[in-house]
Specification:
The chain is mostly helical. It has helices spanning 2-17, 61-73, 77-84, 91-110, 122-130, 135-152, 158-177, 183-195, 199-212, 217-227, 235-247, 258-265, 280-295, 303-316, 320-330, 345-362; strands at 21-24, 27-30. It is 60% helix and 2% strand. Strands 1-2 form a two-stranded antiparallel ribbon. It is globular.
């Protein structure tokens, strides 16, 4: 986390200087603000920073419509219907469960309630009270509790453990409500990490998930966190986990990009120069992710997640044209790593986007040369 903040600070500094200097093939050329050659993301049809949607990594209009409806009316039934019509084993249902839980959590934070005020997220409580056997509502409630633990308390404290224990109970109830539904078990991965389950306990849970959805990208990302050095594993363990998943991934699976996420989770504290991002381990992970992106289905719900992380690494490696190619596909939605770790995801994304545009133009690129 500290590394990401430092990287973003350096990027912000570079962004502040972009109107004044531009790197060309022959050296440094001074460019005044307002000059036609100054980097301008809007020339490429990119949205303004204030127009970027921070709620999700890519478009899901059905979800957006339902989120807006639930937030406006407080009626949970549209959310229930949407989840009921979403394939249980797919990536999209897991993303939608997370989105509904996140919306309820955000509402509660903004309106904690009081003597004369109804707390935010009341629609989720009503959903659970009126439809206790609804599998979608049970899964959203479990994920809501897990998110509340991470957002409102500190791991290792009594408050954190109490909320996580509630989340574990909710996961078990959700699993009973829908046997064979992988989502409650995916939520339990967050619980396992938070409560510090032993490796045998984690392996038992992970084996159950693999039996249900062996190539689920979201599940692998959640499991990867447990194996990381900052939680209950090590750099070597996380790399091995990611590379094994990539090796057994079927053609068209985004699991080939998992090593890039493992690299991101273990960014070193000192290697901030472009040379590190051109090292063998990083280049290999980038190429694996690029291969995954090129072979994946265009409608894969996890595709935007991989593209966003590629933007980060390609910009740091000064691979400007490739970064621009990814930006064309994801611009407009920024609810993904690494931007979601920032207090202002739209700003973090906009910084890297501006750097990509400046680098692309400094090397001869322009809107006409950018593939659509």
């Amino acid at each position: 986390m500290a590394t990401l903040w430092l990287l973003l600070a350096l990027a912000l500094l570079a962004f502040a200087l972009l109107p004044l200097i531009r790197r060309g093939r022959g050296g440094i050329e001074r460019v005044h603000p307002g000059h036609p050659d100054a980097a301008d993301p809007e020339r490429y049809g990119f949205l303004r920073q204030e127009e970027l949607d921070v709620r999700m990594p890519g478009p899901d209009q059905d979800l957006l419509d339902v989120l807006d409806l639930v937030g406006r009316t407080g009626d949970y039934r549209a959310a229930s219907q949407l989840l009921a019509g979403t394939e249980a084993e797919g990536e999209r249902r897991w993303q939608r469960v997370q989105a509904f839980a996140g919306a309820a959590s955000l509402e509660l934070r903004e309106r904690p309630g009081g003597v004369h005020e109804t707390p935010g997220g009341q629609w989720l409580r009503v959903w659970r009270a009126e439809q206790p056997k609804d599998a979608g509502g049970a899964a959203v409630h479990a994920e809501f509790l897990a998110q509340q633990a991470w957002r409102t308390s500190v791991p290792g404290t009594d408050d954190f453990r109490i909320i996580m224990e509630e989340a574990r109970d909710a996961c078990e109830r959700a699993a009973l409500a829908a046997p064979g539904d992988p989502v409650p078990h995916l939520v339990m991965l967050s619980v396992a990490r938070g409560l510090g389950w032993s490796r045998p306990e984690f392996d038992e849970l992970w084996g159950k998930i693999l039996g249900l959805v062996p190539h689920h990208m979201g599940a692998h990302l959640a499991a990867l966190h447990y194996t990381c050095e900052k939680w209950h594993g090590s750099r070597e363990e996380a790399y091995a986990f990611a590379e094994a998943a990539a090796a057994r991934a079927p053609e068209g699976s985004l699991l080939a990009a998992l090593p890039l996420f493992a690299v991101f989770e273990h960014l070193p504290e000192v290697n901030l120069v472009a040379g590190f991002y051109r090292s063998e381990v990083v280049v290999r992970a980038i190429h694996g992710a690029l291969h995954a992106v090129h072979s994946a289905r265009p409608d894969d719900p996890m595709l935007a997640h991989v593209r966003h992380l590629l933007v980060f690494f390609l910009v740091r490696a000064e691979r400007w044209a490739e970064a621009m190619d990814q930006l064309v596909h994801v611009d407009g939605h920024v609810g993904a790593l690494p931007w979601s770790l920032s207090e202002d995801p739209a700003e973090a994304f906009a910084v890297y986007r501006a750097l990509a545009v400046a680098g692309y133009e400094a090397n001869g690129g322009n809107p006409a040369t950018l593939p659509g």
